[in-house]
Design brief:
This protein has a single domain, classed as Rossmann fold (3-Layer(aba) Sandwich). It is α+β, with helices and mostly antiparallel strands. β5 and β6 form a beta hairpin. It is built from 4 helices and 12 strands; from the N terminus they run βββαααββββββββαβ. Strands 1, 2, 4, 5, 6, 7 and 8 form a 7-stranded antiparallel sheet that branches.
Amino acid sequence: MQLTINNYRCFPDPRRVRIDLRPGFTAFLGTNNAGKSSLLRFFYEFQGLFGTIQDESALTHALKTSHPFPWNSQGLRHPDDLFCNHNDGGIVIEVLASISPKLGLRLTIPRAQNMFSAAFIEGEKAHRYDPNSPVRVNNRQLFRDDTTTVDFTPIFEGFTDSCAMKVTLLAA
């Protein structure tokens, strides 16, 4: 799976961060002030969001409109601290289960709103909920034409179960 984070803390557009998450050990390597600690904070601060979208009704609601954003406030002075201070854009998180073809989920958190919205990513397009669409979500899986297209279970479990995600911070 590939995770892309844009406009979170020190990752402004277009200097977004892209991480390939695979089973086993994940390490962040980089020079001082490269954003390693911010990435660790991301996984902590967004546990609530990834826990929320495991709930099919919450994800469906976010695909139709906006849903309350459950941020982890411990150690956070204000929700605005989550956003990059180099621009006024919102945070955009993309979770791709497949790179070719590009299939996944885009989560958008607008600045100054305690809400998030979701869209399915298919190719270069992001689709919001459409009752006539062949794309639907059920039990952490994205379906297209009644065949499983994307299974988000591993990524959701990785975010919500801190024991399942082994992260080591290494300074270069």
